[in-house]
Amino acid sequence: MPTIVVDADACPVKREIVEIARAHAVPVLMVASHDHRLHAEEGVAIMQVDRSDQSVDLYIANHIRRGDIVVTQDFGLATIVIAKGAIALSQRGQEYDDSNIDYLMERRHELAKRRRGGGRTKGPKALTNEDRVRFQQKLTKVLVSRQENAEP
């Protein structure tokens, strides 16, 4: 059975993840630094790691298994997730995969170069209700597909 693993430091759809996971009887692991207060509840385990820059990403990368579902907005972590045979979803409902991750990483690199050179870049848009609905639909679709494929 897969686990939904959440890069929970800045994830705005934690409640939606928990509700969908419960409906499909799938466990959730929220991983966050000690700077964030998270509370374990039925079906939801919490792992808090130190506050250094990549601690959450490293914990997730070292503990996910093939078939897990990871919710993150970090393209670097998504690359590792894909390489390990897990599914990577953004909190807006985009699935990261081999067809788009190279472009996303290249774009991230170009924007970082621009910022280092003194240029300005826009941050991410605020999460909308449409984004939340798209995320819920995508996570549900992934879980239903996994359950259908697991049936004998």
UniProtKB/TrEMBL annotation:
It holds the Pfam family DUF188. Residues 112-131 are annotated as: Disordered. It comes from the Bacteria. Residues 112-123 have a biased composition (Basic residues). InterPro entries: UPF0178 (IPR003791). Belongs to the UPF0178 family. This is UPF0178 protein GT003_25070. It comes from Paenibacillus sacheonensis.
